[in-house]
Amino acid sequence: MKVLYTTGNSKKFENAKYFFAKHDIEIEQLLVDINEIQSDDALSVTIDKALKAYELEKKSLFVNDATWIIPALRGFPGPFMKYINKWFDPIDFVHLMQGKNDRRIILRDYIVFIDCKGHKVFKHDYEGIILDTVAPFDYNYPTDVVISLSKDKKSIAEKNKEGSFFIEGENKIWEEFAQWLMLEKL
C-alpha cells in the first residue's frame, strides 16, 4: 500500500516513513505550495490544507499538523506556536505562567486523510506542563527548554539530549491511522 504525505518538513517525513515501514505501508512525500489559511481553529487549518492538496493532486493523501493549548491562558497560543516561537524567548513562557496554578500544556496532534470519498480526521492530545524555570540545555525552539511532555518532567531539550523521544506515546495517533489505513484499503 502506498499513500502520499503532504509535508515540506523532511524530518517529519522521515519519521513517518520509518513508522509506516513497520506496517508495510509505503509513503511518498508530496511537496505542494499551499497558501495556509490563518485561523485560531487548528482543525480547520489542517482540513483546509488537505482539501487544497487533494484539489491540486487528485490523489489520496494525508497531512499532519499540531497545535498547542495552554488551558490557563484560554487556549493560547493555538495554531500560532510557530510564530510565538519566533517572538518569545524561553523566559517569556515562564513569565506568562506566573501566578497560574494550572501549568498544563496540551499538544493536540491531527492527521487528516482525504480521498475521492471525503476526509477522515484523527486526533490525539498529549498533555504536559510548562516548567517553573528554563532548563539549561541547547534548544531549537524556546519551548524546548520550558515544556515537558514526559512523566519525568524533563524538558523537551533534555529528552532530546538523552536521545529519547520527548513525547511519551507519540505513536498513538500514527498507530490508529495505520490500522485504519490497513483496514480501509484492503
What does this molecule look like?
The chain has helices at residues 10-21, 42-57, 81-87, 90-96, 156-162, 171-184, and strands at residues 2-6, 26-30, 61-69, 77-78, 104-115, 118-130, 147-148. Helix content is 34%, strand content 26%. Strand 5 and strand 6 (118-130) form a beta hairpin. The radius of gyration is 17 Å and the shape is globular. Strands 1, 2, 3, 4, 5, 6 and 7 form a 7-stranded mixed β-sheet that branches. With 186 residues, the chain is α/β, with parallel strands linked by helices.
Q: Major sheet: size, sense and barrel closure?
A: 7 strands, mixed
- Amino- and carboxy-terminal Cα gap: 9 Å
Stretches where pLDDT falls below 50 for ≥5 residues?
none
Give the helix/strand class: alpha/beta
Order of helices and strands: EHEHEEHHEEEHH
Number of strands: 7
Question: What would you call the shape?
Answer: globular
Radius of gyration, whole Å:
17 Å
Question: What proportion strand?
Answer: 25-35%
Mean pLDDT equals: 91
Count of individual helical segments? 6
DSSP helix fraction: 25-40%
Topology:
Elements: E1 2-6, H1 10-21, E2 26-30, H2 42-57, E3 61-69, E4 77-78, H3 81-87, H4 90-96, E5 104-115, E6 118-130, E7 147-148, H5 156-162, H6 171-184
Parallel strand pairs: 1-2, 1-3
Antiparallel strand pairs: 3-4, 3-5, 5-6, 6-7
